[in-house]
Design a protein that fits this description.
- By secondary structure, the protein is mainly beta.
- The chain has four helices and 46 strands.
- The strands form six sheets. The chain has a 30-stranded mixed beta sheet that branches.
- This is TonB-dependent receptor.
């Protein structure tokens, strides 16, 4: 019987059509006409559909199928076969196969709901549930199962996202999705205070050992917040809701990351408890050099800078969750996630500025000095959320939930610097000529309340409605003191570079979404989301207040057609989305650690409005999957980084403006196959063309971009698993800048021992060279700059993990709703948000 699925796949690949005919008829008399057989495959524990489960109709004896199909995304299947008696075999990876005897007559037969039980294998006191593939391509998302990848052990969330299909993560930790940095990163489908400020830095604070999976949604439906041009990236943390007490402890040591982590989970009857805690230390040294040519009036300015970076940071990350299910139809949740982090960045900066030819009006610009810069960023962040979910026994798909969350992010961004003149320019024997110190206290608070209701109608029609209120309050208090040696005896406040900024953003939203099917081949989802935004901002001083409010109606459409060949679908999705700028883009704090290149936010930014269109083709089977998509997006008021030139001070100034129209067209292909037992191979190719046009700057910028990645996993001799990942990203383009590409690869070997309760994993990342060189070129009418940043990427880690306790997967697993705030344009490295 084990050969029937292989036979079915080969027959489908050779194009035999929807039904595979047997070489011999079943024992009962075959009829000239065929009979329809339908049904739905559900998970036995949570009664949710099992998408793409394999269904085969076999004769009473023999393993050659008479008919076969893969279920659709709702677990439904349709088979046709002559009248007679058969064996119906239902199977899927991670579940125990089910066999039913079926007798077909002259009329159609409905098998109703067929449940599959998750497979489990007792390993001493620990129960391990069926193995997942590294990457799953689902109709609405790509899922990277990070916990199944041994090369992640001991790393950070940056390492995990770098290996997720469709995502690009550069050396600084900046994240892009399909060439767009306009995306929202969530934790467990919720916004997190941990990610509220500097996303690139925050991703280094989440240990990879606590990440279960990463979900990438490129075209979310109306029930999601208006996420913007790129999409939603959801980091799913590990948790355990099985009966019993279990846990794990782990330690990792390496030249880039070290961490100590543990987890404890317990569930007795109706009450469950989950917890995890980790301490970590990271270090990321680097060096850079840059040159800039300034076009002055009658002269050329030449800026040369060299920098040595020593970045390091450490802290703790933890979460606690409680669940209480008083009845089978109702459940309560209470969750807390928090972290404390302290990062240190020491820089040695060499600066030289020369004007050629020497002209009297530019003599004051000639400078030669070095700077010692010390940046300290302590932060504390936490999220508290609670929810209630109610289902209905008479209508399994009917559901109502009420959810709430409060998030707080508090960080200080402090720096001090000492500036020294070149020895040949020192007149009094003291090379120290200037000192500076700055403090920026940033406090973000966000409260969210939402309710959602799902109501099923006859057939497969479902109505989803909901409402939400998001209340955001941001405070940024920044001060700067300066001291000029020989002119002052103590530090003095610089009022021009000190201020306080208060920002409030309230969002009220409501949505409705109707899903329905037309016949057996077509399914549709029509939705609309309305969002009202009210913004208030205030600076200290005169004319420091501003206010803005707007209402947006955002439609969505999704259509799916099941093709004649089993397990294949064709989909079309359209969405109009809004993306509000996060505080990173709004905070007017002036980052002036490098006086020749300063940056600040723009509190008057407006939200982006984007049109998204996606056409996709999917085919799935037990051993292979393929997803091909063609996509396009258009943003008419894109928020872009804009660099201008200050002639008086000979410096570049960077901020953000709604200044461009952005268009992207592209295609993506992901394929995965398991050719032999124990081996999995997957690959991703993303090609896109980006075109930016700004009338205000009289400038266009475009580029053909691509990224390619491959992953593989092989399990041999039962105790050993080897995994490999490699990727190349061909850079990206901005309105005034172009960035070079980079590559990344990793190799991991895992050994399981102590009755499969312990793992020892050795990882090596980008190990054939010490690091990667990133290049950037920026062109404006006033200057041209070129920079090279060398990031030390070579890393080696040795990790140990031990699991303990006893669990039981016989208890039903409840699906739980969670908050999804994904409406803001997120920040990355560079200037910090408040």
């Amino acid at each position: 019987m084990k050969h029937y699925i292989t036979y079915l796949l080969l027959a489908s690949a050779l194009g035999y059509g929807h039904t595979v005919q047997a070489q011999s008829a079943p024992t009962s008399t075959a009829q000239s006409t065929s009979t329809r057989l339908t049904g739905t495959v559900l998970d036995e524990a949570n009664k949710q559909p099992v998408p793409f489960a394999t269904v085969a109709l076999l004769p009473p004896t023999g393993d050659k199928p008479v008919a076969g199909a893969a279920c659709d995304e709702k677990g439904s299947f349709v088979l046709t076969a002559p009248a007679g008696t058969y064996r119906l075999v239902v199977s899927f990876v991670g579940y125990t196969s089910r066999t039913e005897t079926v007798t077909l007559g002259a009329t159609a037969k409905d098998m109703g709901q067929l449940t599959l039980a998750a497979t489990s294998q007792k390993l001493g006191e620990v129960t391990v549930v069926g193995e997942k593939p590294l990457v799953e391509a689902r109709p609405d998302r790509i899922v990277y199962n990070a916990e199944a990848d041994a090369t992640n052990t001991g790393g950070t969330a940056s390492d995990v996202l770098r290996k997720t299909p469709l995502l690009n993560v550069d050396a600084d930790g900046n994240v892009q999705l399909r060439g767009s940095s306009n995306l929202r990163v969530l934790i467990n489908n919720k916004p997190s205070a941990i990610l509220a400020g500097n996303l690139a830095e925050a991703l280094k604070q989440i240990p990879a050992d606590q990440i279960k999976a990463v979900e990438v949604l490129t075209t979310p439906s109306a029930k999601y917040d208006a996420e913007g041009t790129g999409g939603v990236v959801n980091i799913v943390l590990k948790k355990n809701s099985l009966q019993g007490v279990n846990g794990r402890v782990g330690v990792a040591v390496g030249n880039r990351n070290q961490n100590l982590n543990g987890a404890l989970n317990a569930r007795r009857g109706k009450v469950g408890f989950t917890s995890s805690l980790s301490g970590f230390y990271n270090q990321y040294p680097g060096r850079s050099n840059s040159s800039r040519t300034d076009y002055l009036d009658g002269a050329i300015g030449q800026l040369t800078q060299n920098t040595e970076n020593k970045s390091r940071g450490g802290g703790g990350f933890g979460k606690v969750g409680l669940t209480f299910d008083p009845t089978e139809q109702s459940g309560f949740t209470l969750d807390f996630t928090g972290n404390a982090y302290h990062s240190v960045n020491d820089q040695d900066l060499f600066n030289e500025y020369r004007v050629l030819p020497q002209l009297e009006q530019y003599n004051s610009l000639d400078t030669l000095y070095t700077r010692d810069i010390r940046q300290r960023t302590p932060s504390r962040n936490y999220d508290v959320s609670a929810g209630y979910t109610r289902t209905f026994k008479d209508q399994p798909r009917r559901e109502w939930s009420v959810l709430g969350q409060h998030s707080v992010s508090r960080s200080r961004q402090n720096y001090t610097l000492d500036q020294f003149r070149a020895p040949e320019l020192v007149e009094n024997g003291n090379p120290l000529e200037y000192q500076e110190r700055s403090e920026n206290l940033a406090l973000n608070r966000e409260t969210t309340i939402q309710t959602d209701y799902v109501h099923p109608f006859k057939g497969k029609t479902t109505l989803e409605t909901g409402a939400k209120a998001i209340l955001r309050q941001v405070n940024s208090d920044y001060d700067l003191d300066t001291l000029r040696t020989g002119q002052q005896t103590d530090f003095a406040r610089n009022d021009l570079r000190s201020n306080a900024f208060d920002y409030r953003q309230n969002v009220l939203a409501a949505y409705g979404s109707l899903g329905f099917s037309l016949g057996k081949k077509y399914s549709f989802t029509l939705g609309t989301r309305a969002e009202y935004t009210d913004i208030k901002g205030e600076f200290v001083g005169e004319n420091g207040r501003f206010r803005n409010d707007y209402l947006n109606v955002l439609p969505t459409l999704s259509a799916t057609r099941n093709l004649k060949k089993d397990g294949q679908t064709l989909g079309l999705t359209y969405a109009r989305r809004i993306q509000r700028p996060q505080i990173y883009f709004l905070n007017p704090y002036v980052n002036q650690t490098d006086p020749r290149n300063i940056s600040y936010g723009n509190p008057e930014l407006r939200p982006e409005l984007t049109q998204n269109l996606d056409v996709s083709y999917n085919t799935y089977s037990e051993k292979s999957s393929l997803t091909l998509s063609l996509y396009g997006r258009r943003t008419n008021n894109s928020i872009e980084s804009v660099l201008t030139y200050n002639d008086t001070l000979a410096r570049s100034e960077s901020t953000f403006q709604n200044i461009a129209n952005s268009s992207t067209i592209g295609s993506n292909l992901y394929a995965s196959v398991r050719p032999v037992k124990g081996l999995q191979i997957g690959g991703n190719v993303d090609l896109n063309y980006v075109h930016l046009k700004s009338v205000a700057l009289n400038r266009t910028s475009s580029r053909f971009l691509y990224n390619v990645s491959a992953n593989s996993s092989y399990k041999f001799k039962e105790k050993y698993t080897a995994q490999f990942y490699a990727g190349y990203y061909a850079g990206w383009v901005q309105l005034q800048s172009r960035n070079s590409g980079y590559y990344y690869y990793s190799l991991g070997l895992k050994r399981t021992f102590l009755n499969d309760k312990a793992d020892l994993t050795l990882n090596a990342n980008t190990f054939l060279q010490s690091g990667i060189n990133f290049r950037n070129t920026t062109t404006t009418p006033s200057f041209v700059s070129r920079s090279n940043f060398f990031s030390y990427q070579r890393s080696v880690r040795l990790s140990f993990s031990y699991r303990f306790g006893k669990v039981d997967n016989s208890a039903p697993q409840r699906r739980r709703r969670s908050i999804q705030n994904n409406d803001s344009k997120s920040g990355s490295s560079g200037q910090q948000g408040g």
